[in-house]
Amino acid sequence: MNKILLPSDGSEHSIRSAEKAIELAKLYEAQIDVLYVVDGSTSKKDVIQHTDKYVIEKRRKERLKPIEERLNQAGITYKTHTLHGEPGPTIVDFANKGDYEYVVLGSRGLNNLQTMVLGSVSHKVAKRVDKPVMIVK
Amino acid sequence: MFNSILLCADGSQHSIRAAEKAIELAMKSKIPLEIAYVISGATSKSDVLYCHDKSDISQSRQAKLKMIQEQCFVKKIPYQIHLLRGEPGPTIVQFANKQAYDCVILGSRGLNPFQSMVLGSVSHKVAKRVNCPVLLVK
């Protein structure tokens, strides 16, 4: 079965990229792997704001909720993966290891400052992933 | 759904791989393929230096797109070629933003290896400035 990788942080852009990924999945009858990367600063913030692990877990799930809702609505088979690390390199690693037909990325994520400078994460990923990468605005 | 897709081609190895993906998408979406080929100042100069007359030039340009046209033909995908003139990056961006495409497909590196080394240049510029989703093929 074809697979499509959807790295996601729950941002506005990642919701739009989810919609495109769904269209592609329908065309290719593919399954979608949603990848959520928890980086150092998110992890710190989560821990400072919430004292127990259960709440942290729940909040992370909430971030992906709009995306999961859309996937469910479209009737697409999907799996969610949560990884820890720097978003860029972590996504690249994961994408290159798996056997994906496409990687669908939002052009901007939650990291606004970096985006202003370069388009950062999506640019890095687009450059280093060896699969076709679709960048959604 | 994808209703209109634009393939940016320069005849390079990467653009042929991009064409394969574009044709696959066009086939699955059951839509024709639009192909943009940009003639830049530098290409135009080298064409004129190497070829003697005008028909030679247009032939050499045709040859660059031939592989892609053949693939379209084999897969029975209707296609339309747009010949554009100017700097590849901005010309593609302008053209793609004027017609509302659902997806623009690009090879990640083109014929300009030096610029690619520095930045990935044309594809990076296009990916940043085109309003619709951009598919980069390696």
UniProtKB/TrEMBL annotation, chain A:
UspA domain location: 2-137
Highest taxon of source: Bacteria
Family (UniProt): Belongs to the universal stress protein A family.
PANTHER family named in the record: STRESS RESPONSE PROTEIN NHAX, UNIVERSAL STRESS PROTEIN UP12
Protein's name according to its UniProt entry: Universal stress protein
UniProtKB/TrEMBL annotation, chain B:
Highest taxon of source: Bacteria
Ranges of residues in domain UspA: 1-138
Entry-linked CDD domains: USP-like
Signal peptide residues on this chain, from the entry's feature table: none
Name of the protein described by the UniProt record: Universal stress protein
Alphabetized InterPro entries for the sequence: Rossmann-like_a/b/a_fold, Universal_stress_UspA, UspA
Family statement: Belongs to the universal stress protein A family.
